[in-house]
Structures are given as structure tokens and as C-alpha cells.
Amino acid sequence: MNYLVEYDFNNFNETFDCVPGVRNGVTFDFLDCRIKINTLGESLASFWINGEITSIEEAKSKLNQCIKLLSYIFSLPFYEKGKEVCETQNVLEQNSLLGKNNKERLILVEKYVRKLSSRKDFFEETLDLIIVAIDNLYKDREEDAFMYFFKVIERIAKEHYHVYAERHHKKNIQRENKKKLREFIDNYARDTFHIEFTKDMLDGKTGELYKELERSYYGNIYSKISLFISLNKFNGYDADSISHMVKTRNKLAHGDLVDKEMFEASFAQCEYLAMQMFSKYFFHVEYEKIHIKSQRTKGFEPYKK
Fold first, then answer.
1. How far is CA 38 from the centre of its chain?
2. Is the separation of the CB atoms in 126 and 155 below 8 Å?
3. Torsions phi, psi of 234, nearest 5?
4. Cβ contacts of residue 143 below 8 Å, gap of 6+?
5. How far apart are CA 247 and CA 209, in angstroms?
6. Among 65, 117, 137, 175, which is most buried by a count of CB atoms within 10 Å?
7. 165 and 256 part of one domain
8. b/e 154-180 (16+ beta carbons within 10 angstroms → b)
9. Which helix (H) or strand (E) holds 49?
């Protein structure tokens, strides 16, 4: 007995008309599952797994991960919480309708997913946030969608900072940084205030200032997001755009009114940055390298540059 779950990914109000950028009837394999997508007539995505080599519990887990990842890759709401996994004797036959570039995208994602190991829990938790964000987006709950996209950004930025700090702020590096700062303080005191500090006084002031600078530079979410964007060389994000995103998040979190134009601009950047950061952090490529183009409404593809 095999296992099957089906999703009507276009079951939304008239705001959206979801169209995956694949040929009608395409069938392909991904993460031990087989997927068939119908884009004409009834918009249906079928996810199938071989029951001869998979238990029902394993099937549910694998199908769940596969569906969520494809929701992210397509940026479409394939996933629906609580959808029943059915037993079936039918077999989904694979075909060759999936294009070469899209096959390579899926191969790349699958390669990294199978290597997650110690980061698996963090990966799944962050993917769940994206799925909730996408679900809210397609249900016209834009403020909730914004908050969940921002949570993705926040979680990855914080996790990335901790890893970065461990690698780049080890004791030997801190010593070198403090040495440079110590020299600056000593010279500044002599040249500007005509004061000469004792060794203990200079060490104390250096330690105090180093801690204050570190806290000031990395002690807030703006700085952690900025660090990730800078190191990964993301285009289109400057200090003002990051600041507006953070301010929008704070206003929404406190129930304050947000200017419509400011929200729309921040929302577009927040969503795109969340998708980019997830791709960069876990798959080491820009989102465009794994995104299978799709339309939310006829003629509109959200990630086309």
C-alpha cells in the first residue's frame, strides 16, 4: 500500500490565481516523494510515496517536509496543516516534463537537506515560520505574514551572529582588536587631552570601551540583520530600508498604526529578504538559484528581478 496527499493550491479568494511555472501534468521525484502538478482545470498538487519501503509514520514525516519545501521553492501555498495522508494502491508514474534547470534546483536543495545533521531542528523550525508566513499572505492577512517573515529574518540573523562571533571574535582575535583600540585610546588621550594613562588605567578603559562598542554594534536586531546582509553582499538593502523594516515590525508588535506606503514597501523587502536569507543560510545560494518561478496572479511573478 502506498501513501498519497493532495492539495488544491489555488483554493483562495479572487485576490490570487496561483500558477506554478511548470508544465501541466509534470511528475518528478524530490526527497523520496513523487509529485504531480496539474495546472489546467482543477489546480491540484499530488504528493505520493512508496509504501513498500516506507512506514506510515515515515511517510507522513517525509511528505510533510517535501510539501513544505516545495511551498518555499515555488512560493506557493501547497502545504495545508492537518491534511490527511491517504492509503492508495495507485502509483504515480514519473515523466520527463520537468525542465533541466528546475531539476537542478531540486537536486541542489535535496543535497543540502540531506546534509543538515546538527542544524536540522533549526532548519525545520525556520521553515515552519516561512510556511505560516506564506499561508497568512495568501489568506490576505498581510500584517501577520509580515511578522512571520520578519521572524525568519530575526532567527537566522541571530543564529548567524552567534556562529560569526564564535569564529571571528575568539580570544586571540579579541586580543588583537583590543590592542588596536588600546593604541588608539592612548594616542587620542595624549594628542587631544594631553593626558598619559598608567598601564592599568589604559587596560581598564580599553576593556570598558571594547565591551560598549561590541554591545552597541551587535546588541540589537538591526545590527545582526545588517551584518548578514553585508557579509552575503545582498543588493537593494541599505541602512534606511533595514531600519524601516525593523520599525515596521516594532509598530505592528505594539499595535500601532503603520503608514500604508511604508508598510507596503517594508513588506515587499521583508518577504524577499526572508526567502533570500533562508536560501543563503541553508543552501548557500541566492533564492533565485532554487526558486521555481510561479505566478500569484496572472502575469505577476514576485521574485523576478
1. 27
2. yes
3. -75, 135
4. 252, 263
5. 28
6. 137
7. yes
8. bbbbebbbeeeeeeeeeeeeeeebeee
9. strand 44-49
Q: Do residue 12 and residue 81 come from a single domain?
A: yes
Residue 58 shares a structural domain with residue 126:
no
Burial string for 54-80 (b: 16+ CB within 10 Å, else e) reads beeeebbebbbbbbbbbbbbbbbbbbb
The rounded distance, in Å, linking the Cα atoms of 34 and 241 is 41
pLDDT digits (tens, 9 = 90+) for 30-62: 999 999 998 887 778 899 999 888 899 999 999
Same domain assignment for residues 256 and 295: yes
pLDDT category of residue 299 using cuts at 50, 70 and 90: very low
266 and 190 housed in the same domain: no
Nearest partner of 94 among 164, 182, 13, 28, judged by Cα: 28
Residues 57-109: tens digit of each pLDDT: 999 999 999 999 999 999 988 888 878 899 999 898 989 999 999 999 999 99
Number of neighbours of residue 235 by Cβ within 10 angstroms: 8
Q: Give start and end residues of each alpha helix (H) in the chain.
A: 56-74, 100-113, 120-138, 142-168, 171-193, 199-218, 221-232, 239-253, 260-283
C-alpha to C-alpha distances, 131 to 180, 227, 229, nearest whole angstrom: 46, 25, 22
pTM above 0.90, yes or no: no
Question: Residue 105 and residue 254: Cα distance in Å, rounded?
Answer: 40
- Which of 300, 298, 278 lies closest to 290, judged by CA? 278
Phi, psi torsion values for 138, nearest 5 degrees:
-75, -10
Between CA 206 and CA 210 the distance in angstroms is 6
Say if residue 149 is in the same domain as residue 259.
Answer: yes
Structural domain boundaries, residue 197: 170-220
Q: What is the total count of domains within the chain?
A: 3
